[in-house]
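Students often ask why we bother encoding 3D structure as a string. The short answer is that it lets us treat folding as translation between two languages. Here is a chain of 614 residues written in the first language.
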Amino acid sequence: MKTNGNKAEKISRESVEHLTYSRISALSGNYLVLYTVDPVTEGYVEFSATKDFEELGLAKSGKEFFAASRINGERAVFAADLQMYRQRFTKENVLREIEERGLFLMHYRLVMDGSPVPVCLRAALVSESDGDKLLVGVTRDEDSPAGPQGSAGEASAHMDFQAFADSVGMPCCVMSVERTPDGGCGDIRIVCANQTYKSNMGPSYYDGMPYHELVPKDNKFEDFCFRAAILKQRMHAYVETKALGWWIDQTLIPLEGGSGDIGYCQFVFEFTAAPETDRLANVSASTAEKVIQSCITLMSGKDFKESVAEVLDLVMQASGARAGRIMLIDHEKDRASIFCERCDDADWPNRVPGRDVISYEIMSSWKDLIGESNAIMIRDEQDLAAIEAENPQWARTMRENGVDSLVLVPLRRSGEEIGYMYVVNFDVSRIIELKELVELLAYFLGSEISNHMLLERLETISKVDVLTGIMNRRAMISRIKQIAKEGGFGRFGVVSIDLNGLKTVNDNEGHDAGDRLLIMAGEILKKVFYEDDLFRTGGDEFIVISESIDEKTFERKVKKLGAAAAKNDSVSFAVGTFWSDGSTDLTKALRIADERMYEAKKQYYEKNPQLRSR
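And here it is in the second language, the structure alphabet:
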């Protein structure tokens, strides 16, 4: 019996050891302590390290793991990290992060031998024969600036960060940035912050929190953090934050400390209620030079669209881009249109002509993609795949046309987007400079294009007859001057038209009835002369100029007008025409057509004396 008991005990011990080390291998690392936790009941088994931390000692079990951890944390966690520890290390947070990312990570400090020692807590779910188990392990933090030995002097880097943030007289925090094994940007956390920063951010702030728990995730901001913390570049931007309705002047400065895979940077910011000129001007000398050059181009007095296209040329040259485009969006008419574009087809072999047209639906979706940010940036396949997950239709268009990289910014007027500017297939090593340039140019272009559109609209309104929608006398005079400036044209025809009986209708039935008659007459004229210049030159008078037309085609149009009017009992036209082979100028042709119209009108009233109005 004793032999059998020893054998059973040995089998049981080997089974426990096998299970223990299988759990350890799931997380890997030199553990101070390791727990296996039932995620449902919170019952747990603890394996504590021996004094030299070289192996795990005997197990002990307990209940209510997270409650016990909070109690233990009160005496073991370094005071400056305790609030973060309490807020982050909850069952809900741990399970949520594991579901989202496969692993829960938390960096903090334990007090050991009277000194704060940086540690890393990792947690993961593993499947075992009796159900899922939550593995929680605590190791020395190899990525901490305190170093693997964790001496008091080396650990002071963490304490210096807090003192450093507290010494800054504006909102300031210290951020940690992880470099992933593939060289990309990983976890970004707010290590600590001064009181001014905490007051701005509100009660949801805690030390060590992932930045995206405080503000929406933003790949452009993450790129800035990565460049500052890992690549040790000073970063600055002054941008509008749609979520807050403020402009933010933000600077990220590299800090010493960290390992090859963890870096630190200082983040300071200021809010302004509206864009301030001196802050907008606080850009690199290269960007400032290009912006000034662009403004001079826009004010040159040349054709406005061509001037805007030259600005696109400048952006493309600065970034090595293969194409650039400015598009406008009209939400009232559900329409997207190209304002101007530049594209070198010879240098862009994958572009499919006619298949890169952006629909209103796709363009409308950009607003949601930009979200609370101020731009869309695609640097590589990973960024494009992220866009594809949210907007497969647009991503498909980009892939079909060989788009590898893109920066897109909205053009706004009074806070509302009127369009977008984007450049594609550029030198991604210049993406920060490019982003700075296009964001600043977008500020000016949004205003200039909006003003141009307003002036065009006012010009159009001033040349359109409100009642009939036909161009007015002012438009006709402008058109005649333009034709004269261009040296005239060859064969053409003119038609002088008078609406018979308008005065009689006005006198007998009222002006509302007269207006309805004019509208009917206008609709007939627009259907017949839809290809020609049509003008309402007076109360009941109209002029048509048919450019580059042969005599037979011109005569068919005039006959078509007579047939259309004959089908309407209310509308009668007096018509005078003249066709020129180019030997008669436009002014003389109009005069002859007008004389013939008056003769036709005279004959009409001789036949209908009861309708005489003159």
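Translate back mentally: Residues 303 and 309 are 10 Å apart (CA to CA). Keep this in mind for the problem set.
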